[in-house]
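ARCHIVE RECORD
Type: protein–small molecule complex
Small molecule: iron/sulfur cluster
Source of inputs: curated submission
Record status: active
Notes field left blank by submitter.
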Amino acid sequence: MPSVYLETYGCQMNVADSELMLGKLAAAGYSHTQNPEGADVILVNTCAVRDNAEQRVLGRLGELRRHMHRDTVLGVTGCMAQRLGSRILDANSRVSLVVGPDAYRALPELIDGARRGERFTATDFDLEEHYDDFQARRFEGVKAWIPVQRGCDYRCTYCIVPYTRGSERSRAMADVVRETREVVEQGLTEVVLLGQTVNSWNDGSGDFGDLLRAVGAVEGIRRVRYTSPHPNDFTDSVIAAMAEVETVCEHVHLPMQSGSSAMLKRMLRRYTRDGYLDCVARMRSAIPDLSITTDIIVGFPGETDAEFAETLSLVRAVGFDDAFTFKFSPREGTPATRLPAELTVPEEVVDARYEELLALVRAIARSRNMARLGQRREVLVEKAARKGGDLLQARSRDFRTVMVPAEAAAIGDYLTVELTGTTGSTFTGTPVVERAHLPLAN
Ligand code: SAH
Ligand code: SF4
Ligand code: F3S
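STRUCTURE (tokenized, with ligand):
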């Protein structure tokens, strides 16, 4: 049996795609190996969203060469493959496959060809493709990533994703519900619905609110999450579904990007500062204790001190539970790269703003977490804590990471804990009831 080793970079959509690829290759007779040494096929599933994501992969491709024997096939898949296409083959003589996100169906044949010494670039978009018939090989023990939408029809001026993932398309509700039932049969109780603007999902039979209701009602599912929504697609129907469906968790990752309406306009985000605040207010009034996390970019071309100050003030006004912060990275071919060069924000200014934003984000998260000490949460035990010891890592419905003392056998269980300590970002929790193997019913 030939073996395949696969590494994944980038977002959850890429993780889900890797699971689909491994499923497809397992069906084609490949065994999966966790070690690149001696693997017959090495695949690197890549991200193109920022330059540093690409640099990491390029460095890694060099390292992986050391593990390859003469006949090892090295393939690059994902967003960098789509963005650079045959340029990857030209630059790296050991790479023989470049396969974009819509071309994974052909992987077994492409690998066969590569093993005969051929080299391929497969980067056509396929607007029908959802890989519905693939059996994903899941590695996350307690929750399942379920893509419900591929591509993106927004054109945020900084973003490469519409070019690497193509146009938006929604997967049929029946297929999403069927996959949800399958993951319950595999013993998982949490699903995360994935799409670039996931709440714009619409398969012609219903909107994202309908999808949340359908998935949330699948017997055996205890938690439904989704990522990432776009603020403009939070219709009343979607918010109502989030509030009413008990299995849908009280957390939303709501990318903000900037707090300045002028900046948001240059980014083509299609909402204003007030529009964002309004979205937050509507969600908070429907879902008490909603936890909100976000993405923010600093140093987009033309960002003034005053505009950056508006980002800081919006971060304060919303009070995020956590935020991912990014320095703007120009992406070839995106509209932002065509802005006049004099609008480029000097590196030292970007660095200083980044540090200031990060400090604020952390301080707010810390104070919000401190305020939750002593409260109780139901947590799902996910895995051993990275730092080891006797602690396991668990997650609350409101997306807080809680370290709990428990044996490995508790992975997959729901516990009620009291939040007894916090580092500012994560918690320690003390179980307040005997560990209960709760029935898998709603
Ligand atoms: N589809 C998702 C986000 C995909 S990319 C959404 O719209 O929410 C994840 C995050 O990366 C974005 O929210 C943005 O904050 C950041 N990002 C995207 N392109 C970037 C760039 N060129 N430079 C810096 N950050 C970027
Ligand atoms: Fe990129 Fe904007 Fe689409 Fe998100 S919504 S993937 S940021 S273009
Ligand atoms: Fe990266 Fe592609 Fe996801 S660019 S963030 S892996 S959609």
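CURATOR ANNOTATION: The mean pLDDT is 96.
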